[in-house]
Here is the input.
Amino acid sequence: MPRALITGVTGQDGSYLAELLLGRGYEVHGIVRRSSSFHTERIDHLYTDPHLLGDDGHGEPGGLRLHYGDMLDGTALRRILDAAQPDEVYNLAAQSHVRVSFDQSEHTADVAGLGALRLFEAVRDHARAAGRPVRVYQAGSSEMFGLAPAPQNEASPFLPRSPYAVAKVAAHHFGVTFREAYGLFIANGILFNHESPRRGETFVTLKITRAAARIRLGLQDRLYLGELDARRDWGFAGDYVVAMWLMLQQPVPGDFVVATGESHSVREFLEAAFGRLELDWQAHVVLDPRYRRPVEIPHLCGDSTRARATLGWTPRVRFAELVAMMVDHDLDLAQRERAGGAPPNVGPGSRAPGPGRA
Ligand code: NAP
Ligand code: GDD
Here is the structure.
Protein backbone atom coordinates (compact mmCIF):
# COMPACT_ATOMS: atom_id res chain seq x y z
CA MET A 1 0.00 0.00 0.00
CA PRO A 2 1.55 3.35 -1.03
CA ARG A 3 1.90 5.96 1.71
CA ALA A 4 1.58 9.73 1.29
CA LEU A 5 2.27 12.63 3.63
CA ILE A 6 0.36 15.88 3.12
CA THR A 7 1.36 19.17 4.74
CA GLY A 8 -1.60 21.56 4.80
CA VAL A 9 -4.07 18.66 4.93
CA THR A 10 -6.67 20.83 6.70
CA GLY A 11 -6.75 23.30 3.78
CA GLN A 12 -8.91 23.33 0.67
CA ASP A 13 -6.48 21.38 -1.50
CA GLY A 14 -5.35 19.10 1.32
CA SER A 15 -8.88 17.83 1.80
CA TYR A 16 -9.45 17.10 -1.91
CA LEU A 17 -6.02 15.49 -2.23
CA ALA A 18 -6.58 13.30 0.84
CA GLU A 19 -9.89 12.13 -0.67
CA LEU A 20 -8.21 11.37 -3.99
CA LEU A 21 -5.34 9.41 -2.43
CA LEU A 22 -7.55 7.44 -0.03
CA GLY A 23 -9.73 6.56 -3.04
CA ARG A 24 -6.64 5.27 -4.82
CA GLY A 25 -5.70 2.99 -1.95
CA TYR A 26 -3.08 5.11 -0.22
CA GLU A 27 -2.43 5.32 3.49
CA VAL A 28 -2.53 9.08 4.02
CA HIS A 29 -0.67 10.96 6.74
CA GLY A 30 -1.50 14.60 7.36
CA ILE A 31 0.21 17.33 9.35
CA VAL A 32 -2.09 19.42 11.54
CA ARG A 33 -1.12 22.57 13.42
CA ARG A 34 -2.00 22.67 17.06
CA SER A 35 -4.63 25.32 17.74
CA SER A 36 -6.90 26.10 20.67
CA SER A 37 -10.01 25.23 18.67
CA PHE A 38 -10.84 22.59 16.07
CA HIS A 39 -10.05 23.46 12.47
CA THR A 40 -10.41 20.11 10.78
CA GLU A 41 -13.86 20.66 9.20
CA ARG A 42 -12.62 19.91 5.70
CA ILE A 43 -11.28 16.46 6.63
CA ASP A 44 -13.66 15.37 9.37
CA HIS A 45 -15.51 13.08 6.95
CA LEU A 46 -12.25 11.25 6.13
CA TYR A 47 -11.18 10.70 9.69
CA THR A 48 -11.26 7.39 11.54
CA ASP A 49 -10.40 6.82 15.18
CA PRO A 50 -6.64 6.07 15.23
CA HIS A 51 -7.24 3.10 17.55
CA LEU A 52 -9.12 1.42 14.70
CA LEU A 53 -6.30 2.18 12.25
CA GLY A 54 -3.58 0.46 14.18
CA ASP A 55 -1.47 3.38 15.31
CA ASP A 56 -0.60 1.04 18.17
CA GLY A 57 0.78 -1.48 15.67
CA HIS A 58 -2.14 -3.93 15.84
CA GLY A 59 -4.59 -2.64 13.26
CA GLU A 60 -4.89 -2.60 9.48
CA PRO A 61 -2.80 -0.23 7.36
CA GLY A 62 -4.57 2.55 5.44
CA GLY A 63 -6.86 5.43 6.26
CA LEU A 64 -6.06 9.00 7.25
CA ARG A 65 -3.60 9.49 10.11
CA LEU A 66 -2.92 12.91 11.59
CA HIS A 67 0.27 14.21 13.18
CA TYR A 68 0.83 17.46 15.02
CA GLY A 69 3.48 19.51 13.25
CA ASP A 70 4.36 22.85 11.79
CA MET A 71 6.43 24.07 8.85
CA LEU A 72 8.32 26.21 11.36
CA ASP A 73 9.45 23.13 13.30
CA GLY A 74 12.05 21.11 11.39
CA THR A 75 12.48 18.59 14.20
CA ALA A 76 8.80 17.69 14.10
CA LEU A 77 8.91 17.37 10.30
CA ARG A 78 11.79 14.88 10.57
CA ARG A 79 10.02 12.81 13.21
CA ILE A 80 6.81 12.74 11.17
CA LEU A 81 8.70 11.55 8.09
CA ASP A 82 10.24 8.74 10.16
CA ALA A 83 6.83 7.79 11.56
CA ALA A 84 4.92 7.98 8.27
CA GLN A 85 7.61 6.49 5.97
CA PRO A 86 5.94 8.12 2.95
CA ASP A 87 6.55 7.30 -0.69
CA GLU A 88 5.10 10.65 -1.70
CA VAL A 89 5.13 14.01 0.12
CA TYR A 90 2.79 16.83 -0.91
CA ASN A 91 3.85 20.21 0.47
CA LEU A 92 0.63 22.24 0.52
CA ALA A 93 1.15 24.13 3.78
CA ALA A 94 1.34 27.91 3.52
CA GLN A 95 -0.02 31.19 4.77
CA SER A 96 -1.75 31.37 1.41
CA HIS A 97 -3.55 34.74 1.50
CA VAL A 98 -1.80 37.32 -0.68
CA ARG A 99 -3.27 40.39 1.06
CA VAL A 100 -2.40 38.99 4.49
CA SER A 101 1.17 38.35 3.34
CA PHE A 102 1.69 42.12 3.30
CA ASP A 103 0.64 42.26 6.97
CA GLN A 104 2.56 39.14 8.03
CA SER A 105 5.47 39.12 5.63
CA GLU A 106 8.07 37.42 7.85
CA HIS A 107 5.67 34.72 8.94
CA THR A 108 4.54 34.09 5.36
CA ALA A 109 8.12 33.82 4.14
CA ASP A 110 9.01 31.53 7.02
CA VAL A 111 6.15 29.10 6.40
CA ALA A 112 5.97 29.15 2.60
CA GLY A 113 9.64 29.76 1.77
CA LEU A 114 11.88 28.46 4.55
CA GLY A 115 9.24 25.88 5.47
CA ALA A 116 9.69 24.25 2.07
CA LEU A 117 13.47 24.26 2.57
CA ARG A 118 13.09 22.61 6.01
CA LEU A 119 10.91 19.93 4.45
CA PHE A 120 13.25 19.29 1.51
CA GLU A 121 16.25 18.96 3.86
CA ALA A 122 14.28 16.58 6.05
CA VAL A 123 13.21 14.50 3.05
CA ARG A 124 16.78 14.41 1.77
CA ASP A 125 18.05 12.96 5.06
CA HIS A 126 15.07 10.68 5.52
CA ALA A 127 15.36 9.19 2.02
CA ARG A 128 19.08 8.54 2.49
CA ALA A 129 18.61 6.95 5.92
CA ALA A 130 15.63 4.86 4.81
CA GLY A 131 17.40 3.81 1.61
CA ARG A 132 14.39 4.38 -0.62
CA PRO A 133 13.22 7.19 -2.89
CA VAL A 134 10.66 9.76 -1.74
CA ARG A 135 8.83 11.89 -4.27
CA VAL A 136 7.89 15.47 -3.37
CA TYR A 137 5.26 17.82 -4.76
CA GLN A 138 5.81 21.54 -4.10
CA ALA A 139 2.73 23.79 -4.30
CA GLY A 140 3.87 26.71 -6.42
CA SER A 141 1.59 29.48 -7.58
CA SER A 142 0.70 31.61 -10.59
CA GLU A 143 1.34 34.55 -8.22
CA MET A 144 5.03 33.85 -8.92
CA PHE A 145 4.52 35.23 -12.45
CA GLY A 146 3.26 38.57 -11.13
CA LEU A 147 3.55 41.09 -13.93
CA ALA A 148 4.70 38.61 -16.60
CA PRO A 149 2.37 39.04 -19.59
CA ALA A 150 -0.51 36.58 -20.01
CA PRO A 151 -0.79 33.80 -20.99
CA GLN A 152 1.91 32.55 -18.62
CA ASN A 153 3.64 29.19 -19.05
CA GLU A 154 6.76 27.44 -17.71
CA ALA A 155 9.00 29.73 -19.79
CA SER A 156 7.48 32.95 -18.43
CA PRO A 157 9.64 34.98 -16.03
CA PHE A 158 8.90 35.09 -12.32
CA LEU A 159 8.11 38.72 -11.43
CA PRO A 160 6.56 38.33 -7.95
CA ARG A 161 4.66 41.25 -6.39
CA SER A 162 3.90 40.15 -2.82
CA PRO A 163 5.76 38.62 0.11
CA TYR A 164 3.70 35.47 -0.51
CA ALA A 165 4.79 35.29 -4.14
CA VAL A 166 8.45 35.92 -3.30
CA ALA A 167 8.33 33.10 -0.74
CA LYS A 168 6.80 30.75 -3.32
CA VAL A 169 9.52 31.68 -5.85
CA ALA A 170 12.14 30.83 -3.21
CA ALA A 171 10.47 27.47 -2.53
CA HIS A 172 10.35 26.78 -6.28
CA HIS A 173 14.06 27.44 -6.65
CA PHE A 174 14.89 25.39 -3.53
CA GLY A 175 13.05 22.53 -5.25
CA VAL A 176 14.96 22.90 -8.51
CA THR A 177 18.26 23.21 -6.62
CA PHE A 178 17.66 20.08 -4.53
CA ARG A 179 16.61 18.19 -7.64
CA GLU A 180 19.83 19.09 -9.42
CA ALA A 181 22.20 18.93 -6.44
CA TYR A 182 20.96 15.75 -4.73
CA GLY A 183 18.89 14.00 -7.38
CA LEU A 184 15.72 14.32 -5.31
CA PHE A 185 12.40 13.85 -7.10
CA ILE A 186 10.79 17.26 -6.51
CA ALA A 187 8.01 18.38 -8.86
CA ASN A 188 6.98 22.02 -8.84
CA GLY A 189 3.33 22.63 -9.65
CA ILE A 190 2.61 26.19 -10.76
CA LEU A 191 -1.10 26.28 -10.13
CA PHE A 192 -3.43 29.07 -11.11
CA ASN A 193 -6.35 29.99 -8.84
CA HIS A 194 -8.56 27.06 -7.98
CA GLU A 195 -11.72 27.27 -5.97
CA SER A 196 -14.50 25.13 -4.53
CA PRO A 197 -17.19 25.21 -1.86
CA ARG A 198 -14.31 24.42 0.54
CA ARG A 199 -12.41 27.61 -0.33
CA GLY A 200 -11.36 29.81 2.59
CA GLU A 201 -13.98 32.46 3.30
CA THR A 202 -11.68 35.44 2.75
CA PHE A 203 -10.73 34.57 -0.84
CA VAL A 204 -12.74 36.60 -3.31
CA THR A 205 -14.75 33.79 -4.93
CA LEU A 206 -16.19 32.30 -1.76
CA LYS A 207 -16.57 35.74 -0.24
CA ILE A 208 -18.79 36.61 -3.22
CA THR A 209 -20.81 33.38 -3.40
CA ARG A 210 -21.46 33.31 0.34
CA ALA A 211 -22.54 36.96 0.36
CA ALA A 212 -24.75 36.56 -2.72
CA ALA A 213 -26.58 33.63 -1.13
CA ARG A 214 -27.05 35.47 2.19
CA ILE A 215 -28.26 38.61 0.37
CA ARG A 216 -30.74 36.48 -1.60
CA LEU A 217 -32.23 35.24 1.65
CA GLY A 218 -32.19 38.62 3.37
CA LEU A 219 -29.43 37.69 5.83
CA GLN A 220 -27.18 40.56 4.74
CA ASP A 221 -27.37 43.50 2.36
CA ARG A 222 -23.86 44.62 1.49
CA LEU A 223 -20.65 43.07 0.25
CA TYR A 224 -17.39 45.01 0.68
CA LEU A 225 -14.73 44.35 -1.95
CA GLY A 226 -11.48 45.77 -3.30
CA GLU A 227 -10.17 45.65 -6.89
CA LEU A 228 -12.85 44.48 -9.36
CA ASP A 229 -10.90 44.66 -12.63
CA ALA A 230 -8.21 42.09 -11.79
CA ARG A 231 -8.48 38.98 -13.96
CA ARG A 232 -7.82 35.48 -12.72
CA ASP A 233 -7.83 32.00 -14.27
CA TRP A 234 -10.25 30.19 -11.95
CA GLY A 235 -10.48 26.39 -11.99
CA PHE A 236 -11.91 23.73 -9.67
CA ALA A 237 -9.69 22.49 -6.82
CA GLY A 238 -10.92 18.91 -7.25
CA ASP A 239 -9.45 18.89 -10.77
CA TYR A 240 -6.16 20.46 -9.71
CA VAL A 241 -5.24 17.86 -7.08
CA VAL A 242 -5.36 15.25 -9.86
CA ALA A 243 -2.57 17.18 -11.61
CA MET A 244 -0.53 17.15 -8.36
CA TRP A 245 -0.81 13.36 -8.16
CA LEU A 246 0.02 12.91 -11.86
CA MET A 247 3.21 14.96 -11.44
CA LEU A 248 4.50 12.41 -8.91
CA GLN A 249 3.70 9.46 -11.21
CA GLN A 250 6.07 10.66 -13.97
CA PRO A 251 9.40 8.96 -14.69
CA VAL A 252 11.27 12.23 -14.07
CA PRO A 253 10.39 15.29 -11.99
CA GLY A 254 9.43 18.53 -13.71
CA ASP A 255 7.70 21.87 -13.39
CA PHE A 256 4.14 22.21 -14.66
CA VAL A 257 1.67 25.04 -15.11
CA VAL A 258 -1.87 23.95 -14.22
CA ALA A 259 -4.65 26.24 -15.45
CA THR A 260 -7.89 26.36 -17.43
CA GLY A 261 -6.56 28.86 -19.99
CA GLU A 262 -9.59 31.11 -19.49
CA SER A 263 -9.55 34.27 -17.38
CA HIS A 264 -12.33 36.42 -15.94
CA SER A 265 -12.42 39.62 -13.93
CA VAL A 266 -13.71 39.82 -10.37
CA ARG A 267 -16.53 41.91 -11.88
CA GLU A 268 -17.44 39.00 -14.20
CA PHE A 269 -17.40 36.61 -11.26
CA LEU A 270 -19.81 38.96 -9.45
CA GLU A 271 -22.12 39.08 -12.47
CA ALA A 272 -22.16 35.29 -12.77
CA ALA A 273 -22.68 34.61 -9.05
CA PHE A 274 -25.32 37.27 -8.38
CA GLY A 275 -26.93 36.57 -11.76
CA ARG A 276 -27.51 32.92 -10.82
CA LEU A 277 -29.61 34.20 -7.91
CA GLU A 278 -31.33 36.85 -10.07
CA LEU A 279 -29.68 39.65 -8.13
CA ASP A 280 -28.05 42.88 -9.36
CA TRP A 281 -24.59 42.92 -7.77
CA GLN A 282 -24.24 46.66 -8.28
CA ALA A 283 -27.03 47.26 -5.76
CA HIS A 284 -25.08 45.48 -3.04
CA VAL A 285 -21.32 45.78 -3.62
CA VAL A 286 -19.46 48.58 -1.86
CA LEU A 287 -15.82 49.30 -2.68
CA ASP A 288 -13.61 49.33 0.40
CA PRO A 289 -9.92 50.24 0.12
CA ARG A 290 -9.03 47.89 2.99
CA TYR A 291 -9.50 44.97 0.58
CA ARG A 292 -7.06 46.34 -1.98
CA ARG A 293 -3.43 45.22 -2.02
CA PRO A 294 -0.46 47.63 -1.96
CA VAL A 295 0.26 46.32 -5.46
CA GLU A 296 -2.11 44.33 -7.63
CA ILE A 297 -1.54 41.68 -10.29
CA PRO A 298 -3.85 42.68 -13.14
CA HIS A 299 -3.99 39.53 -15.24
CA LEU A 300 -3.19 35.87 -14.66
CA CYS A 301 -4.16 33.37 -17.35
CA GLY A 302 -2.30 30.08 -17.69
CA ASP A 303 -1.08 28.10 -20.66
CA SER A 304 -1.03 24.49 -19.42
CA THR A 305 0.02 22.90 -22.72
CA ARG A 306 2.87 20.99 -21.05
CA ALA A 307 0.65 19.51 -18.33
CA ARG A 308 -1.97 18.49 -20.88
CA ALA A 309 0.61 16.87 -23.18
CA THR A 310 2.87 15.23 -20.59
CA LEU A 311 0.49 14.43 -17.74
CA GLY A 312 -2.62 13.90 -19.87
CA TRP A 313 -4.39 16.32 -17.51
CA THR A 314 -7.39 18.44 -18.47
CA PRO A 315 -9.69 20.56 -16.31
CA ARG A 316 -13.22 19.16 -16.23
CA VAL A 317 -15.07 22.02 -14.51
CA ARG A 318 -15.27 25.31 -16.40
CA PHE A 319 -16.02 28.80 -15.09
CA ALA A 320 -19.84 28.80 -15.27
CA GLU A 321 -20.09 25.37 -13.66
CA LEU A 322 -17.65 26.37 -10.91
CA VAL A 323 -19.65 29.49 -10.06
CA ALA A 324 -22.90 27.50 -10.04
CA MET A 325 -21.39 24.82 -7.79
CA MET A 326 -20.23 27.40 -5.25
CA VAL A 327 -23.41 29.51 -5.33
CA ASP A 328 -25.67 26.46 -4.95
CA HIS A 329 -23.62 25.19 -2.03
CA ASP A 330 -23.73 28.55 -0.30
CA LEU A 331 -27.45 28.95 -0.92
CA ASP A 332 -28.01 25.65 0.85
CA LEU A 333 -25.80 26.88 3.70
CA ALA A 334 -27.72 30.15 3.95
CA GLN A 335 -31.07 28.33 3.94
CA ARG A 336 -29.93 26.26 6.90
CA GLU A 337 -28.69 29.38 8.62
CA ARG A 338 -32.03 31.11 8.10
CA ALA A 339 -33.87 28.04 9.37
CA GLY A 340 -32.04 28.56 12.65
CA GLY A 341 -29.57 25.70 12.55
CA ALA A 342 -25.88 26.27 12.99
CA PRO A 343 -24.18 26.70 9.61
CA PRO A 344 -23.11 23.20 8.60
CA ASN A 345 -19.48 22.25 8.13
CA VAL A 346 -18.12 21.86 4.63
CA GLY A 347 -17.71 18.12 5.02
CA PRO A 348 -20.11 15.60 6.49
CA GLY A 349 -19.26 13.42 9.43
CA SER A 350 -17.97 13.82 12.93
CA ARG A 351 -15.12 16.03 14.03
CA ALA A 352 -11.59 14.70 13.95
CA PRO A 353 -10.21 15.20 17.44
CA GLY A 354 -6.68 15.97 16.24
CA PRO A 355 -3.81 13.56 15.88
CA GLY A 356 -4.92 11.67 18.98
CA ARG A 357 -1.53 11.91 20.62
CA ALA A 358 -2.09 14.72 23.09
P1 NAP B 1 -5.37 26.92 2.32
O1 NAP B 1 -6.78 26.47 2.24
O2 NAP B 1 -5.06 28.27 2.84
O3 NAP B 1 -4.60 25.83 3.23
C1 NAP B 1 -3.31 26.07 3.72
C2 NAP B 1 -2.91 24.93 4.62
O4 NAP B 1 -1.61 25.21 5.16
C3 NAP B 1 -3.84 24.75 5.83
O5 NAP B 1 -3.97 23.37 6.10
C4 NAP B 1 -3.07 25.43 6.94
O6 NAP B 1 -3.38 24.94 8.23
C5 NAP B 1 -1.66 25.02 6.56
N1 NAP B 1 -0.65 25.82 7.23
C6 NAP B 1 -0.54 27.15 7.32
N2 NAP B 1 0.52 27.51 8.04
C7 NAP B 1 1.12 26.36 8.44
C8 NAP B 1 2.25 26.06 9.23
N3 NAP B 1 3.01 27.04 9.77
N4 NAP B 1 2.58 24.77 9.43
C9 NAP B 1 1.80 23.78 8.93
N5 NAP B 1 0.71 24.00 8.18
C10 NAP B 1 0.38 25.27 7.95
O7 NAP B 1 -4.65 26.80 0.92
P2 NAP B 1 -5.08 25.95 -0.39
O8 NAP B 1 -5.96 26.79 -1.23
O9 NAP B 1 -5.52 24.60 0.03
O10 NAP B 1 -3.69 25.85 -1.15
C11 NAP B 1 -2.77 24.79 -0.89
C12 NAP B 1 -1.38 25.22 -1.29
O11 NAP B 1 -1.36 25.56 -2.68
C13 NAP B 1 -0.86 26.45 -0.55
O12 NAP B 1 0.53 26.29 -0.40
C14 NAP B 1 -1.14 27.59 -1.52
O13 NAP B 1 -0.24 28.65 -1.29
C15 NAP B 1 -0.92 26.91 -2.85
N6 NAP B 1 -1.69 27.44 -3.97
C16 NAP B 1 -3.03 27.59 -3.88
C17 NAP B 1 -3.74 28.05 -4.97
C18 NAP B 1 -5.23 28.22 -4.92
O14 NAP B 1 -5.77 28.90 -5.79
N7 NAP B 1 -5.92 27.61 -3.97
C19 NAP B 1 -3.06 28.34 -6.17
C20 NAP B 1 -1.69 28.15 -6.22
C21 NAP B 1 -1.00 27.68 -5.12
P3 NAP B 1 -4.54 25.60 9.13
O15 NAP B 1 -5.80 24.90 8.73
O16 NAP B 1 -4.08 25.30 10.50
O17 NAP B 1 -4.57 27.07 8.81
N1 GDD C 1 -9.41 38.19 -1.09
C1 GDD C 1 -10.02 39.24 -1.68
N2 GDD C 1 -10.95 39.93 -0.95
N3 GDD C 1 -9.70 39.57 -2.93
C2 GDD C 1 -10.35 40.62 -3.50
C3 GDD C 1 -11.32 41.36 -2.82
C4 GDD C 1 -11.64 41.01 -1.48
O1 GDD C 1 -12.47 41.61 -0.82
N4 GDD C 1 -11.79 42.32 -3.66
C5 GDD C 1 -11.14 42.18 -4.81
N5 GDD C 1 -10.26 41.16 -4.73
C6 GDD C 1 -9.34 40.73 -5.78
C7 GDD C 1 -7.88 40.64 -5.37
O2 GDD C 1 -7.28 41.94 -5.31
C8 GDD C 1 -7.32 39.75 -6.47
O3 GDD C 1 -7.03 40.51 -7.61
C9 GDD C 1 -8.49 38.83 -6.80
O4 GDD C 1 -9.65 39.41 -6.19
C10 GDD C 1 -8.32 37.42 -6.26
O5 GDD C 1 -8.00 37.51 -4.87
P1 GDD C 1 -7.95 36.18 -3.95
O6 GDD C 1 -9.22 35.44 -4.08
O7 GDD C 1 -7.55 36.64 -2.58
O8 GDD C 1 -6.84 35.28 -4.64
P2 GDD C 1 -5.38 35.65 -5.15
O9 GDD C 1 -5.40 35.60 -6.65
O10 GDD C 1 -4.83 36.87 -4.52
O11 GDD C 1 -4.52 34.43 -4.57
C11 GDD C 1 -5.02 33.10 -4.67
O12 GDD C 1 -4.57 32.49 -5.85
C12 GDD C 1 -3.14 32.33 -5.93
C13 GDD C 1 -2.85 31.70 -7.29
O13 GDD C 1 -2.85 32.68 -8.28
C14 GDD C 1 -4.53 32.35 -3.41
O14 GDD C 1 -5.16 31.08 -3.35
C15 GDD C 1 -3.03 32.13 -3.45
O15 GDD C 1 -2.64 31.28 -2.37
C16 GDD C 1 -2.69 31.46 -4.78
O16 GDD C 1 -1.31 31.22 -4.87
Summary: Residues 7-8, 10-14, 31, 33, 39, 70-72, 92-96, 111, 139, 141, 191, 193-194, 200 surround NAP (ligand 1) (CB under 6 Å). The longest strand covers residues 135-141. DSSP finds eleven helices and 13 strands in the chain.
